[in-house]
Specification:
It comes from Flavihumibacter fluminis. By secondary structure, this protein is an alpha/beta fold. It is built from twelve helices and twelve strands. The strands form two sheets. A six-stranded parallel β-sheet has the order 2-1-3-4-5-11, with helices on both faces. Strands 7-6-8-9-10-12 form a six-stranded mixed β-sheet, sandwiched between helices. The longest helix is centred in the last third of the chain and has 17 residues. The chain starts with 7 loop residues before the first helix and ends in an 11-residue tail after the last strand.
Length: 346
């Protein structure tokens, strides 16, 4: 027998079992007793059985492919998200097809067209900074394509959402800076039409309000492409440091904004934390290797990808059943390091 092409029929014949019994055992069905299931799985492992995904897709009218739309792939946060997604997808026998929009709505629309032409079973999407609504996604949803939003979301479709505690994270990070004695905290963030931006601004404002302090609105800067273009971050920082009263702290809303801000401060000769402190939402590897080590608000990117994939595959495999849209908000964790530890006089 060629072990590379062993089938369910081969296993059934070898073990003197019916085809349906072997099939159910391989799927972990409760209808099959534990001894029989273990016997089938052991034989399958020994003879390197692999399911025929093409045959299954033809039978079930599924491609066993998931479309993944991201703003950009060279991003440490999204890299962890991809790992989380693929850890679930591969265990369930699904292939993940990854596309990136480079923060362009037009590219996002093209990516959706290309993915759906390849008959994907479902879609995971973190929208671009140019995406303001779900109109371009509605036709796919109406045709029954399961969709799950993660990280950057759009309201308007009755579907699952997985995101971080953006408001709580921004509140905690801002409060940390206020507790250190800083009062002019600049917040560099993405466009305000994004739900994530609004949530983080809400957390920032709440921290000031609870401290009984007023906010200087000139300290709030939005980058149209979410920091993907370094020049946007630098222009925001240029504007901040030409104010009559420059900021004494910077809170950046993403990996890219945090790193670009760090590079700008070093290039312009500003010492961290002596001249200004820096903190941000960041998941890049080894922030402690920066000099000084950076204070970061860390999101559980791997868990985000994992949860999103689980929800999507459940919808794919039960798409003819009714469901209630679920919104999962994952906790974030503040890691305080040297970039915000300078003692100042209030």
């Amino acid at each position: 027998m060629n072990i590379q092409s062993i089938t369910i029929k081969d296993i059934a014949k070898a073990l003197n079992l019916s085809y349906s019994t072997v099939s159910r055992a391989l799927k972990g069905s409760y209808q099959i007793s534990e001894p029989v299931r273990e016997k089938v799985l052991a034989y399958a492992r020994e003879h390197k059985y692999r399911p025929n995904l093409l045959a299954q897709s033809l039978k079930n009218k599924n491609s066993r492919c998931i479309g993944l739309v991201l703003c950009t792939i060279p991003n440490s946060f999204l890299g962890e998200v991809i790992n989380g997604i693929e850890s679930v997808a591969s265990s369930k026998g699904y292939l993940v097809i990854i596309t990136q929009t480079n923060e362009s709505l037009e590219n996002e629309k093209k990516a959706l067209d290309h993915l759906t032409m390849r008959a994907i079973d479902g879609l995971l999407i973190s929208v671009s900074t140019e995406t303001r609504d779900v109109k371009h996604l509605e036709p796919y949803h109406e045709r029954g394509l399961p969709i799950v939003f993660f990280d950057r979301i759009c309201e308007g479709l009755p579907t699952h959402i997985v995101q971080s505690d953006n408001e709580g994270g921004a509140f905690e990070l801002t409060k940390h800076l206020l507790d250190q004695g800083y009062r002019r905290i600049a917040h560099i963030t993405s466009p305000t039409h994004l739900a994530m931006t609004q949530e983080r601004l809400t957390g920032y404002r709440r921290a000031y309000k609870e401290a009984g302090l007023a906010i200087d609105e000139t300290l709030l800067k939005q980058c149209a492409h979410g920091g993907a273009i370094v020049a946007e971050v630098e222009q925001a920082l240029d504007a901040l440091f030409t104010l009559p009263q420059p900021p004494d702290a910077i809170l950046a809303a993403s990996d890219r904004m945090t790193q670009s801000s760090f590079q700008y401060l070093r290039r312009t000769g500003k010492k961290i934390p002596e001249d200004i402190v820096l903190a941000g939402f960041s998941n890049f590897n080894a922030p402690e290797l920066f000099s000084p080590a950076l204070t970061t608000m860390v999101q559980d990117a791997f868990e985000m990808g994992k949860r999103a994939a689980i929800l999507l595959i459940e919808r794919i495999e039960n798409k003819h059943k009714s469901f209630t849209p679920e919104k999962i908000v994952l906790p974030v964790q503040l890691h305080v390091r040297a970039s915000t530890q300078q003692n100042i006089t209030q």
